[in-house]
Design a protein that fits this description.
By secondary structure, the protein is of the alpha/beta class. It has one domain: Rossmann fold, CATH 3.40.50.300. The chain has nine helices and seven strands; from the N terminus they run βαβαααβαβαββααβα. Helix 2 (31-41) crosses helix 3 (44-55) and helix 6 (117-126) crosses helix 7. The two termini are 16 Å apart. The structure holds BIS(adenosine)-5'-pentaphosphate.
């Protein structure tokens, strides 16, 4: 399956991506994870990206678009992929669509996770990351997925926070970009929604308010429908 997963920062994209790739074996490509790994590794890409990520700005399109289009050509993508965090604006959506057409690659599904901005913000600020798997659900503000003391509730691993999760101004900027339906991420979502019928793409919306298990159930039911 070739799939794009869209949702506000904190909507639960990483959490759902983990569940989806376990079902169908496609590879998760998270733009944020690729960029953070580059920052941690001190690569040229990481040095360029860091300032943008810290401030909640998008890393420029001339960096991210070729980075993702090249990634899609790698061998592990042949059996399917799930894009988590790309496209992030209308330009990225158009460029991705053009590139897929050129490579004769059919996009199967676009998922839009709907979530109120304040809930998304609370989820970001309470998120804790497990050293063994970033997508193990852990959140200090949500009873159902509260960490086990200072350890991961799934595997007991060490927990940490993301720097860009604790800066409210940066979070607001990330959300402004997401909820911009003219040029931002919602514009990218609507770009695909508007061409879905003519291109045979399934456009699925998910209610992101529900709990982790409920969102997964909702998704499975919609995929089977
Ligand atoms: P990125 O890493 O993509 O971050 P993001 O979009 O801000 O999304 P998050 O990872 O914060 O949230 P998520 O939706 O995955 O939520 P999660 O599942 O963790 O991007 C970071 C930065 O990189 C950007 O700001 C930008 O600078 C740069 N960048 C990335 N892509 C780019 C691009 N294409 N172009 C340019 N720049 C780019 O869930 C959040 C929390 O809620 C967790 O604690 C989780 O356990 C919990 N949770 C999840 N689901 C539920 C649920 N159903 N109920 C209750 N709690 C839940």
């Amino acid at each position: 399956m070739r799939l794009i997963l869209l949702g506000a920062p904190g909507a639960g994209k990483g959490t759902v991506a983990k569940q989806l790739t376990a079902i169908d074996g496609s590879v998760q490509i998270s733009t944020g994870d690729i960029l953070r790994a580059a920052v941690k590794g001190g690569t040229e890409l990481g040095k360029q990206a860091k300032a943008y990520i810290d401030k909640g700005d998008l890393v420029p399109d001339d960096i991210t678009i070729p980075m993702i289009l090249d990634r899609l050509k790698e061998d592990d993508c042949k059996s399917g992929w799930l894009l988590d965090g790309f496209p992030r604006n209308k330009n990225q959506a158009v460029k991705l669509h053009e590139a897929l057409k050129k490579e004769n690659m059919k996009l199967d599904i676009v998922i839009e996770m709907e979530l109120d901005r304040q809930i998304a913000k609370n989820r970001i600020m309470g998120r804790r990351l497990c050293v063994n798997d970033n997508n193990h659900p852990n959140n200090v503000y949500i009873d159902a997925i509260k960490p086990d003391g200072d350890k991961c509730r799934v595997c007991g691993g060490e927990l940490s926070k993301r720097d860009d999760d604790q800066d409210e101004a940066a979070i607001d900027k990330r959300h402004n970009i997401y909820y911009d339906d003219k040029e931002g991420t919602l514009a990218a979502a609507y770009y695909f929604r508007d061409i879905a019928d003519q291109e045979g793409i399934r456009y699925i919306t998910l209610d992101g308010k529900a709990g982790v298990e409920e969102v997964a159930d909702q998704l499975v039911k919609k995929l089977e429908a």
